[in-house]
């Protein structure tokens, strides 16, 4: 199983020296990938509900500074040689399709093929409006069309596209990405997200704490996998050819294991609990899992990374 960690793109550790230290430490420790999150600017008055907390509150708040995702990923690429980077996730409608395709192709080309493209449709209506993105209510259709346009540009020698939102023809689009194809992970737990995977993606990338689609115990996660594989069967795709990666919004702590309906809540408690959860996911065929390990200080963050390596990763590989 591949194991990743989250790069800080908001908070106290986004300075270049702190970020460099965290990224290079992660590569030295043997993490497989680093995830990079996506917000451009969050309006001060926020009515949209964050999908992954019970109360809908956005954990980062509305006053936090944010690094831009794709520029940060290019910075991470230049700092590393082996570490992969997963966009976790890129809100596809936030950026123009052709420019986004070019930036992503350039990152993959210059990093010698280390980009994984995690995608989502977005949840924050106010952010869409603040940055003059595509209409929030059209975000699913926009995402699908823009990703089809990206694939056309990345793979065809004479790319052409005639969609509702994107049109181009008689153009040269080189260099192509090194990876053919760039791996695409789809975030989200809804039926539209699962159908999106079946159309053009390689991997399902859920978060287990969505109150609408809870997958925070082994039993619940197994049910979620069965649902996912049902979508694959109906779409004519072999579930064995699709991957599953889980995003975890915390790391091991000294707090006791929580219980949900009499079962242990996955990825709560300490390192031993995390080892058991990872082994259970391995038995279910999960391919990757990543953790949010950064703390309020650089020293504490590096300590979290080293402890996860020594107390968890070393026991599941």
Walk me through the structure.
By secondary structure, this protein is α/β, with parallel strands linked by helices. The chain has one domain: TIM Barrel, CATH 3.20.20.30. The chain is built from nine helices and 13 strands. The protein has helices at 16-29, 69-79, 97-110, 125-130, 139-155, 191-200, 218-235, 271-283, 298-316; strands spanning 2-6, 33-36, 84-87, 90-91, 115-120, 161-162, 167-168, 184-187, 203-205, 243-248, 259-260, 263-264, 288-291. The strands form three sheets. An eight-stranded parallel beta barrel has the order 1-2-3-5-8-9-10-13, surrounded by four helices. β6 and β7 (167-168) form a beta hairpin. α2 runs parallel beside α3 (97-110). It is globular.
Query: What's the total helix number?
Result: 9
Shape: globular
Q: Strand-residue fraction?
A: 5-15%
Largest sheet: 8 strands, parallel, barrel
């Amino acid at each position: 199983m591949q194991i990743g960690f989250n790069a800080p793109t908001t908070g106290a550790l986004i300075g270049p020296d702190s970020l460099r230290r965290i990224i290079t430490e992660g590569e030295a420790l043997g993490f497989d990938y680093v995830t990079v999150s996506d917000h451009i600017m969050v309006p001060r008055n926020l009515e949209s509900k964050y999908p992954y907390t019970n109360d809908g509150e956005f954990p980062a708040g509305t006053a936090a500074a944010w690094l831009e995702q794709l520029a940060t990923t290019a910075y991470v690429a230049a700092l590393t040689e082996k570490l992969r980077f997963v966009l976790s996730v890129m809100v596809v409608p936030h950026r123009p399709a052709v420019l986004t395709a070019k930036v992503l192709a350039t990152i993959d080309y210059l990093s010698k093929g280390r980009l994984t493209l995690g995608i989502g449709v977005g949840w924050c209506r106010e952010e869409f409006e603040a940055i003059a993105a595509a209409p929030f209510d059209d975000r699913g259709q926009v995402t699908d069309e823009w990703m089809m346009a990206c694939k056309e540009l990345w793979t065809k020698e004479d790319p052409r596209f005639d969609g509702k939102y994107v049109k181009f023809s008689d153009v040269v689009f080189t260099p192509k990405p090194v990876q053919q194809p760039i791996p695409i992970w789809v975030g989200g737990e809804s039926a539209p997200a699962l159908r999106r995977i079946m159309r053009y993606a390689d991997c399902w990338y859920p978060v287990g704490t969505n109150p609408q689609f809870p997958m925070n115990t082994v039993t619940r996660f197994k049910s979620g996998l069965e649902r996912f594989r049902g979508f694959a069967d109906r779409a004519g795709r072999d579930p064995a050819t699709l991957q599953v990666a889980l995003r975890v919004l915390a790391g091991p702590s000294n707090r006791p294991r929580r219980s949900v309906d009499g079962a242990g809540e996955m990825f709560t408690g300490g390192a031993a609990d995390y080892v058991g959860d990872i082994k259970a996911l391995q038995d279910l065929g999960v391919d990757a899992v990543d953790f949010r390990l950064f703390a309020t200080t650089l020293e504490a963050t590096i300590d979290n990374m080293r402890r996860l390596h020594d107390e968890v990763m070393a026991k599941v590989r």
